[in-house]
Fold this sequence. Notes:
InterPro entries: MMADHC. Helices cover 32% and strands 14% of the residues. It has two helices and four strands, in the order H-E-E-E-E-H. It starts with 5 loop residues before the first helix and ends with a helix. The relative contact order is 0.17.
Amino acid sequence: MSMWNEMVVQERENLEEHFILAAQVICDALRDSGYWADFIHPSLGKPFSTPTTKATMLETDLRYRHFGFTIEDLGCCKVISHHLWGTHAFVGAIFTNASIESTEMKDILEKYSSTC
């Protein structure tokens, strides 16, 4: 099992806070342009802005396999893994109906690609 200590907890909290702030800005920009956009709160696994449902999508949800991740079952817990970063990754999910080819998405990807 990977190392888990207070430093790791603090790093994860910082990454979560950064993701939530960035995701709010991104979703607001997309909504201002007429698109639907929301993100999954990393700790709760629920949509941030859309009316809450009972459904959740937590970090080790098997549906993340559809986005190129592997979910490893270590017996005591599950771990999400990426082919480039392994298990050293923070996963944040933003959903939108904006096309990847839209000007808004191109601008967002250009702005945030260096921070991801």
